[in-house]
Amino acid sequence: MFDLSSIDSNDFANFYTDINDFVDGLFYDERDALANMSNLASLLYHTLGDVNWVGYYLLKSGELVLGPFQGKPACIRISIGKGVCGTAAQKRKTLRIPDVHQFDGHIACDGDTNAELVIPMIKNGVLLGVLDIDSKVKDRFSEEDQKALENIVDKLLEASEFEHVN
Ligand code: SME
Questions:
Q1: Per-residue pLDDT of the chain in tens (166 residues, 90 and over written 9)
Q2: What is the maximal distance between C-alpha atoms in the chain?
Q3: Are 80 and 90 contacting, i.e. CB atoms less than 8 angstroms apart?
Q4: Torsion sign, CA atoms 98, 52, 117, 16
Q5: How far apart are the CA of 1 and the centre of ligand 1, in A?
Q6: Which residues form the GAF domain (predicted)?
Q7: pLDDT at residue 165, rounded to an integer
Q8: Separation of 60 CA from ligand 1 center, angstroms?
Q9: Ranges of each domain in the chain
Q10: Closest residue (by CA) to atom 2 of ligand 1?
């Protein structure tokens, strides 16, 4: 069993070091993308603090389709260019949105969400999907969060075989 009790989201100095150590352990010797995505969603959901949804939308036949996640049931399909997720996928760029209600076209899957961080998953130049993290707290995600989580997505992509997922 994995023990998350040593990871403290209020310990800003060590949080991402601890998370990265944990991620390395989760991905060690396992290349199944669905398993690694699922464990990473759970790890982030239970440790980040102040997040109400963590999950993936995976690119399938030209649209984003809901993948493994933690949180309430969510919208299943998102067109490229729509919402925060579809826009991040289209631009192939992370979107860190302090207040989703100010984002034109935001898709409200969970009405409680106020801030959102969406990181595109691009491996060898191919867009595979996005990691989406939602918070009820406005301006929840800092630049440090963004960089650290982009780095963790890179680890996920490096560690996993996505051939049968998309
Ligand atoms: N809010 C997202 C939709 C996905 S849910 O937040 C899980 C968007 O605007 O793309």
A1: 788 888 888 888 899 999 999 999 999 999 999 999 999 999 999 999 999 999 999 999 999 999 999 999 999 999 999 999 999 999 999 999 999 999 999 999 888 999 999 999 999 999 999 999 999 999 999 999 999 999 999 999 999 999 888 8
A2: 42
A3: yes
A4: positive
A5: 31
A6: 29-164
A7: 87
A8: 17
A9: 11-159
A10: 107
The CA-atom distances, in angstroms, between 71 and each of 41, 68, 107 are: 10, 10, 16
Distance CA 85, CA 131 (A): 8
The owner of tokens 């860190």 is 96
Bridging pattern class, strands 95-97 and 115-123? antiparallel
**Ligand 1 atom nearest residue 78's Cα:** 10
**Angle, CA 77 vertex, CA 76 and CA 79 arms, to 5°:** 160
Phi, psi of 82 (to 5 degrees): -105, 145
Is 19 near ligand 1, meaning CB less than 6 Å away? no
pLDDT at 5: 87
User: How many angstroms separate the alpha carbon of residue 79 from the centre of ligand 1?
Assistant: 11
Please name the CATH architecture into which domain 11-159 falls. Answer: 2-Layer Sandwich (3.30)
First-to-last alpha carbon distance for the chain, in angstroms, is 29
Question: pTM above the 0.90 mark?
Answer: yes
- Which residue is listed with tokens 């800092």? 142
